[in-house]
Structure formats: C-alpha cells, structure tokens
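Task: complex structure prediction.
Instruction: return structure tokens for all chains below.
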Amino acid sequence: MPNRTGKAPGGRGAVETRLLSAATRLFAEHGFERTSVQEIVDAAGVTKGALYHYFGSKDDLLHEVYARVLRIQQERLDAFADADAPVARRLRDAAADVVVTTIDHFDDTTIFFRSLHQLGEEQRREVRAARRRYHERFRALIEEGQATGEFSDAVPADLVVDYHFGSVHHLGSWYRPDGRLTPREIADHLADLLLRALRP
Amino acid sequence: MPNRTGKAPGGRGAVETRLLSAATRLFAEHGFERTSVQEIVDAAGVTKGALYHYFGSKDDLLHEVYARVLRIQQERLDAFADADAPVARRLRDAAADVVVTTIDHFDDTTIFFRSLHQLGEEQRREVRAARRRYHERFRALIEEGQATGEFSDAVPADLVVDYHFGSVHHLGSWYRPDGRLTPREIADHLADLLLRALRP
DNA sequence: CAGACCCTACCGACTGGTTAGTATGCGGAC
DNA sequence: GTCCGCATACTAACCAGTCGGTAGGGTCTG
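Output:
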C-alpha cells in the first residue's frame, strides 16, 4: 500500500513522481522493452528497492502512464462534448483539443500509441474498453450532426472517428517541437480537415 | 553474401522465405522485442544455424520486412500517380490503393508502423528517407490539384498527407478481417474523406 | 522525559532464467 | 574431395524481480 506522505497531501511522493516521469521519458525515447529497470532508477536517482516499493512491476509503470493519459483525455472530451454550443462547434473544439493535448503530453501519448501490445492481457482489455468509451463519445457527436443534416452521412461515423484519430495517433511519427507550425495551428488545421470532410 | 539456390532462379530460397514469413507473422503478433530468435526458427522448422546463415542479425530480419513493404508501396504509388487521368482521379485511386495494399500486407505494415524505433540508427534513416520520397510523391499530387484550383488550399498539402497516412497507419489498431466492411469499402470511404476534405 | 519499539522508505547485492549470437561439425550434391 | 546448407551445443551478457538490511522519524509506555 504505497505511501502518502504528509508533504504532498493530494498527490504522489517526490520519489514516486520522479520514477514515473523518468520511465515515461525513457519509454518514449527507447521503447518499453529496450528500457531496463536499472536505467529508470538511475535516471530517477534512486535504486531498484525504491521502484519496487512503489510499483508492483515494470508493466505496472507502463500501465500508470496509460491510466494518466486516458483520464486526462476523457475528462477534456467530456467537457467539450457537454458544452452548450452547436454540434459543429463542439466537434471542432473537441477535435482540435485532442490534438493539442496529445502534443502537450507527447511522451505519454507516444508511448500510448506505440506500446499497447506490451501490456498484459487484462490491462490491455481495460485500456481498450476505456478507449472505446472515448471513441463512442466522439462518434456520438458526429452522429448527432449527421442526424440533423449538418454533416454528410456518406461515410459511416465510426470510420470518420478512426480517420481523425488516425491522424492524432500519427502525430508521434512526424510532429517535432521545432517544426514550422505551432501545436495550435496544427490542431486547427486537422480539425478543419475533419469538418471539411463532413460537409454535406 | 546470402545464397541464391538453383531452385528459385529469381527470388529467395525456400528456407529463407520461410524464415522471413515466420518472423513477419511473429513480429506482428507479439512485437519485435518479445519474439525470440528461437521462436522464429522453430516456427520456420529450422535452427539458428539456418537463420544466421541467411541473415546477419535479428535486426536484419526486421529491416528486410521494411524494405519489402516500402518497395511494394512505392511501386504502386508511382503507377497510380503516373496514370493518364485527372488529378482528382489519380489522387483518389492512389489514396484508396494504399489502404487496400496496407490491409493486404497487414502483418508487414503493422510491424512497419509499430517497430520503426527498434531499427538501428542507420537503417532508420534509410527507411525515413524512403518514406519521405513516398510522401513527397503523394504531396505533389495534392499540390497539383491545389494549383489548378480543383482542391482547396486552406490546409497545407503536407499536413493533408499526414492526415491521410495517419488513418492508414492507424488501420493496424482497429481493422479486423471479420469486420463489417470489406477492405475495398474501407479504402473507398477513406479516399472519399480525403477528397471531400479537399473540396474548395 | 527516556528508552523501547516499530514502521516507512529505501538500499544494493544477488539469482534464476532468458537471449542473441558463435564455433564447430556433418551430410550430400557436384 | 570440397564446399554449400544447415544442425547442435555452447557462451557471455543481461535483466526483472527478490530479499535481507538499515536509517531515522514517530509513538507508546513507564
């Protein structure tokens, strides 16, 4: 039963946080399998004892990264989808936000999209289920617009969802912080492409 | 300097082929790092001696998979881009074909998009360069249409390319052979989304 | 207030198992 | 007879996870 020091009332202890962020960076940089537990603890300035005090296994660390990014993205999508605005506006905002959020948590999302298959069977199912909820929420927005005739229904909504998240997923392959466009500009363009594709 | 048996004049020997396809299947199924050389040779019905007779290393096998899929896709893109037809037609055909080809070589492309970061530095550069050529060819098609006014230029062509290939890349995450749509239908829909997004 | 006790947080050496790659041998085709 | 195509047995390295240990702050007791 991991800690909860008096120092940090709501969150994690300092060592725990350092371990998690060191792991995140190294996983994103070299991949999960190519990162040894020793490298992680060295980068965090502690030893294996500390790691296994806070985490059950190396897989556990990976799972924590997933849980964090899933939670953040779901919360943000819900907020945008629940807003009081026309459906086209809500969809555009949500579509752009996921791009910005993905770039803001670049290491996490890189790992997320690259290492799903490393997770154990049960954890993978868990992540998939969360991911499905997320996609369904997004799809509901598109279907809403299709029902009112604001969006074309030439292409099935779930395919449109995969089309858009494909591009988000793909960001890890080409986005560079020193690139020509800012994250916000990229997000606006990608959201624009989605809305353009949905014009009747 | 690998073989070239009298039996298969143009291509590879039977053992070499079996090794490569066993490796491809296992890499796609469990990932590169989680597949041991022993598993590969067992699946191919040979021993390590055979593998190291034909390939220099485990990484070498991965690289072969990459080279094969790159060659196939580049050839097909060139054929479609060089066709004698309006640019919208050529783009649509090329965009749909890459989807079908990706599904037809599902194991190869799954590995391709998932394991790039496992490659050594030099081989990775090589693959990136080939990939860039590929994208540039595709981008040229879009720019051609933008120049004539047939396509909207609201979004930069290179972003549009990444948008589309994002969805192709992403296929490995959701496509299932027993799904509702045939590969051809999926391809047509995705190409349709691209062309729709490019309407002025 | 002192001392006994304890518990959290962490250390670091060790282990058992796995792995990529190698060294050597051998049978059959030419 | 010799060389190609592969088998077999081996090794050196590595790595996730374990385990006994301990520093030091807190708490309980007399």
